[in-house]
Design a protein that fits this description.
With 232 residues, the chain is α/β, with parallel strands linked by helices. The chain has two domains: 111 residues, Translation factors (Elongation Factor Tu (Ef-tu), domain 3, Beta Barrel), CATH 2.40.30; 114 residues, Nucleotide-binding domain of ferredoxin-NADP reductase (FNR) module (Rossmann fold). The chain is built from six helices and 13 strands. It has a six-stranded antiparallel β-sheet. Strands 12-11-10-9-13 form a five-stranded parallel β-sheet, with helices on both faces. Strand 1 and strand 2 form a beta hairpin. The longest helix has 13 residues. GO terms for molecular function: 2 iron, 2 sulfur cluster binding; flavin adenine dinucleotide binding; oxidoreductase activity. It comes from marine sediment metagenome. This is FAD-binding FR-type domain-containing protein. It holds the Pfam family FAD_binding_6.
């Protein structure tokens, strides 16, 4: 049912509709032992065509009969026709989402919330600092900026996780590293490495000091555990 109230969505006024839209799971990517990334497309093609959002916004995702939970939209608004969200198992709804398969239908409401002021970042150097699943909200902005690469200066992406298994978006980290003008540094906490791991070992604030990105004309965007953000 649609109310007469309105809300701002990406600069325009829209009716507030509390009925979830139906979205089909198009692809599932296992990121870690307890995190999956879901690619979703609206079952109604007209919604796919008119839907828009901005990096940093979130949605309410529902499994029918289990409930509803809030997750950031982890894909870039520059990439049309689908959205992605990364879900960590942590309760009833996330457990049910984890059991879904490609082709299954779930509910979605959104987008909601504030967004990153990407227009004010143009011409600046960018430093992204993420920890654990906190890379998910940054991923939307990172891809948004990389898809508009010529509008920004140098880009540094620093990411850390508790262990090798907890690193999300492993293939994308490699892809970002191979992008011109982008420095990508990722690390695991001491004790979280495996015998096969040949990457960095150390806490994010320490690795940030070692990477020593230039603070000049730089905007920093960070998301992760509070203790990490405190020292960043």
């Amino acid at each position: 049912m649609t109310t007469e109230r309105t809300a701002e969505r990406t600069g325009g006024l829209i009716p507030l509709d509390y009925t979830p839209s139906k979205m089909r799971i198009e692809r599932i990517v296992p990121e870690t032992s307890d995190v999956k990334t879901f690619r979703l497309g609206f079952c109604d093609e007209r919604e796919n065509e008119r839907f828009s959002f901005r990096a940093g916004q979130f949605g309410l995702f529902s499994v029918f009969g289990a409930g509803e939970a809030t997750f950031c939209i982890a894909s870039s608004p520059t990439r049309k026709g689908y959205i992605e969200c990364s879900v960590k198992r942590a309760g009833k709804v996330t457990d049910e989402l984890d059991r879904r398969n490609e082709g299954d239908v779930i509910g979605f409401r959104g987008p909601y919330g504030n967004w990153f002021p990407i227009d004010r970042m143009e011409g600046k150097n960018l430093l992204f600092v993420g920890g654990g699943i906190g890379l998910a909200p940054l991923r939307s902005l990172i891809w948004n900026c990389l898809d508009l690469r010529d509008k920004f200066g140098k880009v540094c992406i620093l990411y850390g996780a508790r262990s090798v298994d907890d690193l999300v978006y492993k293939e994308e980290l490699k892809a970002w590293q191979g992008t011109s003008g982008v420095q990508t540094v990722y690390t695991v906490d001491p004790g979280g490495e495996t015998p096969e791991w040949d990457g960095r070992v150390g806490f994010v604030p320490t690795v940030l000091e070692e990477a020593n990105p230039s603070p000049e004309d730089t905007i920093v965007v960070t998301c992760g555990p509070p203790i990490m953000i405190k020292f960043v």
